[in-house]
Amino acid sequence: MSTPATAADPGRRVLVVDEEPAIVRAVKAGLEARGYRVIVATTGQDAISRIASNPPAVVLLDLGLPDIDGLEVVRRVREWTWVPIVVLTADGHEQRKVLALEAGADDYITKPFSMPELLARVKVAIRHHTHRQAAPDESVLEVGDLTIDVARHTCKVGDRTVELTPKEFGFLSLLARWPGRILTHRMILHEVWGPEYVKETQYLRTYATNIRKKLGDGPDHQRLVAKPGVGYTLLLPELEPAG
Questions:
Q1: For residue 98, which of 243, 231, 238, 218 has the smallest C-alpha distance?
Q2: Residue 213's domain spans which residues?
């Protein structure tokens, strides 16, 4: 049974930013039934003010707001805080999702969505933020049974050593620093290959396939997951999003 959240429980406070009453009602009811405390903002400026005055555990942000474009809200919020932001969008175009992620959003979910999927994304976003706060610069990264020692340039799955090429290691360790967050193709290529390679997305497909084989991933269990047309994420195993 869920325990009702209170104002003193910031880890269960969710800010929903959307002007559609039906969406707000459904999201609010679903989250509150699981013990979250929901605050609602219907404009971008109100959302920015609420985040600044009393940061929530996670922000669910619709991109189609009446005053400020949702992408601009993400950019402004990212000037001072890494509060998790999950974008809600009715726009299925991949470029819009890419722009949101590159502006600093942690994840996205396309309308219409199921409550189990939304709850999974909220959990992942909060967990990702907690991981980042706990050890933003740590040299040993642990995601499930995967351990990456950045300083020693080693990778293990359980007790098994995984031999990775330098680029494979760079790709995997970058994702491991942000478990649960989707990194766009451009972000990965820029960080691992360099700015002159940001359009070479075919590199990532090949390297992701090789990494999965070396990790021992199969169709029913993948750590490294592709988001078609957008990017890649390293799943937090116990919080795998619902389909």
A1: 231
A2: 136-239
> How far, in Å, CA of 194 to CA of 202, rounded?
15
Asked whether residue 80 falls in the same domain as residue 20, the answer is yes
What DSSP designation does 146 have?
E
DSSP state letter for 196: G
Q: Within this chain, do residues 18 and 129 fall inside the same structural domain, yes or no?
A: yes
DSSP state of 2: P
Euclidean distance between CA atoms 87 and 222, whole angstroms: 24
Contacts of 33-36 spanning 24+ positions with Cβ under 8 A: 33/2, 34/2, 34/119, 35/2, 35/3, 35/4, 35/5, 36/5, 36/12, 36/122
**Is the model's pLDDT at 62 over the cut of 90?**
yes
234, 108 in Cβ contact below 8 A? Answer: no
Residue for token digits 């959307």? 18
Q: Is the pLDDT of residue 57 over 90?
A: yes
| Average pLDDT, rounded, for the chain | 86
Strand positions, DSSP E, the chain: 13-17, 37-41, 58-62, 85-89, 107-110, 140-143, 146-149, 154-157, 160-161, 183-184, 224-227, 231-234
